[in-house]
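Batch manifest line 376
LIGAND: magnesium ion
JOB: complex structure
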Amino acid sequence: MAQRVSVNEAAGSRRTSRVRVAVRLRPYMDKQDDKGEGPCVRGLGPQKLEIINWRNATETLQYQFDVFHGEETTQQAVFLTSVKPILPHILNGQNASVFAYGPTGAGKTHTMLGSQEQPGIIPRAVREVFNLVGAQEKGQDGWEYSIGMSYLEIYNEKVLDLLSPGSQDLPIREDKDRNILIPGLTHTPLSSFSDFDTHFIPASLNRTTASTKLNQRSSRSHAILLIKVVKSQRGPPHRQQTGKLYLVDLAGSEDNRRTGNQGIRLKESGAINLSLFTLSKVVDALNAGAGGRVPYRDSKLTRLLQDSLGGSAHSVMITNIAPEYRYYFDTFSALNFAAKSKQIVNRPFVRETVVAPTIVPGKRSREEQEAGGSGE
Ligand code: ADP
Ligand code: MG
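JOB STATUS: finished
ARTIFACT:
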């Protein structure tokens, strides 16, 4: 009997790591037809931001995250703070995942992929993995390393191989060691960074440019790059370890919100994009701590990421937001998702209302604001 209790306790206390949540605000992009309203959200230091309260414009709502990247933040700084520190783990047989979340137009692709002039997380991370492996091999640590990539898309709950155009929906399986795999998915060995460019650039351009139809698709599908590092011991007992890094440009978060009636919390709405909706539940469950069921199996995306999100894996979610008013509700909903996942663990997010005079950017007089009251 006693033994059984201790087994249960061990199971209950099994460590699941939480998902680090960063928020990145892109610069205000002035438009001709814009009436000069200015931004509705702004940063308050390295972990906080505030957004005007739509219920009462004399108030702002303040949120706290693990990291806040303001509009001035460079691609390099985002990489150094949020991604670089987790990369050494994949050389030690551990898994990691980095997601860009947020509404279409808020900067997910800029953050993950970037441009020739401003490369994003994907090229920087892949380069760094090659650097790390190079350093290990130079140090003659007794292991041999090989790097490879797969690139896929989840669209309408179908898993499609982006390195093999025209492929059909692929099945997701789990092996006896609980590793998740996709039999039949192209896996391309890479011997250098330029090798990566050669295979990745055409496949990603294929997905992100061209017709409007394709653009719509890119806002509704999840683009998933997998970088795998296999480490083999040169001498006996010839052990082998595999580390996986998933770099994910998620579908636009606005899809979920629009299915809701009042549409503020993801949870309250039905889901057009099942994988994105389930991801939010998985992150909530992981960050709520031990005990609760984590619904990985409820969607393709979360099933695929099961061994690389939570558990012993290292995960970062970068929530991208835009400062213009026309994004207000998408921003609000994205922040509530990101901050909720923050709140459930230890330090609650700060969601306090602040009476206007010192905070609200706007033209109303002090008297007007005070007369407007501070209630909901
Ligand atoms: P998403 O992938 O979320 O739909 P994009 O990455 O395509 O959004 O960004 C929309 C537009 O905003 C693009 O023109 C992009 O270059 C620009 N943009 C996004 N984030 C930034 C940023 N941090 N700095 C400068 N431009 C940005
Ligand atoms: Mg995009």
